[in-house]
Amino acid sequence: MKRIILPFLFLLAAAGLDAQQGKVVDRIIELGQTDNRTMQHLDVISNRFGGRLIGSDAYENAALWCASEFKKWGMEVILDEAGTVPVGFNRGPWFGRMLSDNGMVLHFATPSFTSGTKGVQRGHVLIEPKSKEEFERMKGALKGAWVLIGGKSTGWPIDYSLKADSARESIKLYNDSISKINREIMRENFTNRGSEPKPMLPLKEEPALFYREMREAGILGIIQSATVPITALYDRKNLDNMTFENLPTVCDIKLDESQYKIIEQMAKERRYFLLEFDIRNHFKPGPVKYHNVIGVIKGTKYPDEYVMMGGHLDAFDVATGGVDDGSGVTPAMEAARLIMAAGGKPERTILVCLWAGEEFGLLGSKHWVESNMDKLPKISNYFNRDGGPTVASGLTVPEAMYEDFVKVCKPLNSINPDFPFTLTKRSTPARPRPTSAGGSDHAHFAMNGVPTLSFETPDSKGYNFAYGEIWHTERDTYDKSIAEYQEHTAVVTAVVVYGLANLDHLLSREGLFAPEKKE
Fold first, then answer.
1. Among the residues of 342-398, which ranges form H helices?
2. pLDDT (tens digit, 9 = 90+) per residue, 419-471?
3. Contact by Cβ (8 Å): 267, 47
4. What dihedral do alpha carbons 460, 465, 467, 470 form, nearest 10°?
5. How far apart are CA 388 and CA 381, in angstroms?
6. Angle of CA points 486, 488, 491, to nearest 5°
7. Treating both helix axes as pointing N-terminal to C-terminal, what angle do 483-501 and 2-34 enclose, rounded to 10 degrees?
8. What pLDDT, in 10s, does the model give residues 177-213?
9. Long-range interactions of 195-198: CB distance < 8 A, separation 24+
């Protein structure tokens, strides 16, 4: 008799557990449809704190706020110290204009960890020298000048390190030798005027070739042409060696290319006009710590096994990080809130990961992976979102995972008929495990064999979203996020993550990566 009763009791218990989990999922969906707060979270981190560069007050404030929200929802929180930057940087307002008969307000940006002005500073405009002879001819006029430099901005500042100075010296020597040859060609052409002139030899082009000499001569700053929308990054070449005693002293301005052309032409014509800038780039003594924010929903049965979701909390500060990666971290935050508000008690631990320093080289996620190698075999999947505010509406999974995802994803088509969810069994051969870091925080997980399946996220309603338009530019703002996509993604993420956390096993890794080739 006991042999019959015990299996029957186990079946009853399993059925009761499934029913309870089903109620939680239903409640997640209900709350996601009636009380979805994804865009509220995004409003706070992008509009209350703004651009969240590691080393800035904005990043620290955002991290503390996210941690406080997790605690408020009943979650455990880990503030994981991931590293330091040698000095801090805070961006204030900036303004510029051209003072002339055809004056205009200037459209520009400056990279992070570069110098601001000393209040409002006005100056005349010169075009940079290309040879030592040119520099000697104009060095007396450089004091108090804004200097137009060549090249097209890529968002990075001009490198003023000793290594860069050394590279520039070799170009100067080459240009000096070419200048001597060109002088001889000019004499020859003058002597043989009336004949076909010999062409002059080109000089090597290098933006800010005389950077150090111009700085010592007292220039106010350098100005480089930039495509619109303007990209502004950070001083990656000098930051590691920066101290509060050797901060940059010359403004590095990236100016709207159409305005640059106007100003360049006026400077070539030697017309009188001034440029005026007020740029409030501020530093603070370091080292300045930065932290990953890890929200924890502890597993009831398998607390040492994990399902993970997240994105990077840091963002470049020329805008407000509303998309890159506010559109990643806030659906993950809302997914966690929905699970908690629905009374979810997952059997496996759920980690909500808001990473630091992604924009500086995946620093936060790399630190976590290297500090938690023992946890990696116990991670069912890490869901990373860092591709914009499009809608989670599909997954492609290896065959060994397919039946598990069929079960987990079953409720998704009851959420919103506008966004049908498609689950696909992978038909193409598995790729090899990556051996180098990619472009987002999933990279170091994948390199160590952790599943990092991510949702397919089309712009299914045709809002004409273009990630390249906002990526690292001045347009990375709250209004570029698409609310209905964001809110739906939060619900989908909550349902899938909660479902995986309640499987009685980890997802199989069979067929996840191609077998390693034997030497």
1. 363-371
2. 999 999 999 999 999 999 988 999 999 999 999 999 999 999 999 999 999 99
3. no
4. -150
5. 20
6. 110
7. 170
8. 998 899 999 999 988 888 899 999 998 889 999 999 9
9. none
Q: What domains can be seen in the chain, in order of their start residue?
A: 23-87+288-501 (3.40.630.10), 104-272 (3.50.30)
Cα(434)–Cα(311) distance, rounded to whole angstroms? 20
Do residues 155 and 146 touch, judged by C-beta distance below 8 A? no
Integer Cα distance of 243 and 283 in angstroms: 10
- CA-CA distance, 29 to 19, in Å (whole number)? 15
Separation CA 450–CA 164 (nearest Å): 40
Distances (CA, A) of 3 to 7, 9, 13, 16, 430: 7, 11, 16, 21, 45
Listed residue (463, 436, 490) closest to 29, CA to CA: 490
Average predicted confidence (pLDDT) for the chain: 95
Asked if 250 contacts 115 with a C-beta cutoff of 8 angstroms, the reply is yes
Tokens of 22: 């089903």
Buried b (16+ CB within 10 A) or exposed e, 224-251: bbbeebbbbbbbbebbeebeeeeebebb
User: What are the contacts of 102-108 at 24+ separation with CB within 8 A?
Assistant: 102/262, 103/273, 104/259, 104/262, 106/255, 106/256, 106/259, 106/275, 106/277, 107/228, 107/230, 107/255, 107/256, 107/259, 108/223, 108/226, 108/230, 108/253, 108/254, 108/255, 108/256
Structure tokens, 159: 């490198």
At 321-379, the pLDDT tens digits run: 999 999 999 999 999 999 999 999 999 999 999 999 999 999 999 999 999 999 999 99
% pLDDT > 70, the chain: 96
Distance CA(323)–CA(83), nearest Å, equals 24
Residue type, 280: R
